[in-house]
């Protein structure tokens, strides 16, 4: 029985099911690469692994790492809710060139593992490369990717493809549908072709690859949406609610976009908060209230009686007259039939001349009301 099992293992091996021509992924010596491996959603709970074999043989596979672990140069992370796992290879050298599998471990003697094969080539000057392998943009924005290729691939077919559904776009072919953004590819015919995606949608998030012939390089695109939420804060007993904008990452990515608010912006928002105006209001109102009270008291002060004011003025007038020179005499013509009433008036002394009136003669002056 053990012999039979061993025989079946030799026949079976970790077989590979290939649905299309194996792509060749090119990486620069000493560089790193992130490779997405998609699988059917029914395998979400299955074990996955990354396998390497030096030559195109099904019986010499060496498992480098299982999902959610790191061994040597390889790290494997599974995203079962999105039906793919990623393999990160670091510090690649020429000896890392070879064939690899993205594999789902099905188990059983008569059932082969679900695998997808690719070839990795480590080169000093990669046949195909990209300026940026991971880009994050907001919904509605545009994004540009520059895919570089060596001179030997000038006449090869260029295309921009999506991993998930293998949908591809070609140079000079502009596509614009309601389900996706507008994609346009232009090839300069020398060393580069440019991919322009306009009007990005959340559904555009995911993994793509630049391709020249069968040479490819993966690219990750993350499209985020601005989500407005309310944040409540308390200051000096008052509660304020302010809108806060955050980014929401979409399905199809394995890295989150960090949106941070600097402390300067936070402090500025707090300085401009209405709560501070309410807190400073009492300090501003107290001086105003004191000034108003002083004005009100000043206007309401008791006024002197007119009779008292007259007596004070008359007293002042009498004193002034008595202080005049002796040679100034003032007489009032009084009708004998009229009760004697004194009329007080202030008289300014203005000497007209130095001449004195003759002795024994009277001097009359007319005194008008002052």
Keyword list:
370 residues; alpha+beta; eleven-stranded mixed beta sheet; four-stranded antiparallel beta sheet; 19 strands; 35% strand; elongated
Explain this structure:
The chain is an alpha+beta fold and 370 residues long. The chain contains four helices and 19 strands. It has helices at residues 2-12, 263-271, 274-299, 306-322; strands spanning 24-28, 33-38, 47-53, 62-66, 69-71, 74-79, 84-89, 98-105, 114-123, 128-130, 134-138, 143-149, 158-162, 168-169, 182-187, 192-198, 206-212, 215-235, 238-249. Strands 1, 3, 4, 8, 9, 11, 13, 14, 17, 18 and 19 form an eleven-stranded mixed beta sheet that branches. A four-stranded antiparallel beta sheet has the order 2-7-6-5, with no helix packed on it. Strand 8 (98-105) and strand 9 form a beta hairpin. The longest helix has 26 residues, at 274-299.
Summary, kept brief:
This protein is an alpha+beta fold. The chain is 17% helix and 35% strand.
Helix content: 10-25%
Largest sheet: 11 strands, mixed
Q: What's the total number of strands? A: 19
Global geometry: elongated
Number of helices in the DSSP assignment: 4
Give me the secondary-structure category: alpha+beta
Percent strand: 35-45%
Spans with pLDDT under 50 lasting ≥5 residues? 1-19, 250-272, 320-340
The radius of gyration computed from the alpha-carbon positions, rounded to a whole number of angstroms, is 51 Å
Q: Encode the helix/strand succession as letters.
A: HEEEEEEEEEEEEEEEEEEEHHH
State the end-to-end CA separation: 146 Å
Average pLDDT score? 74
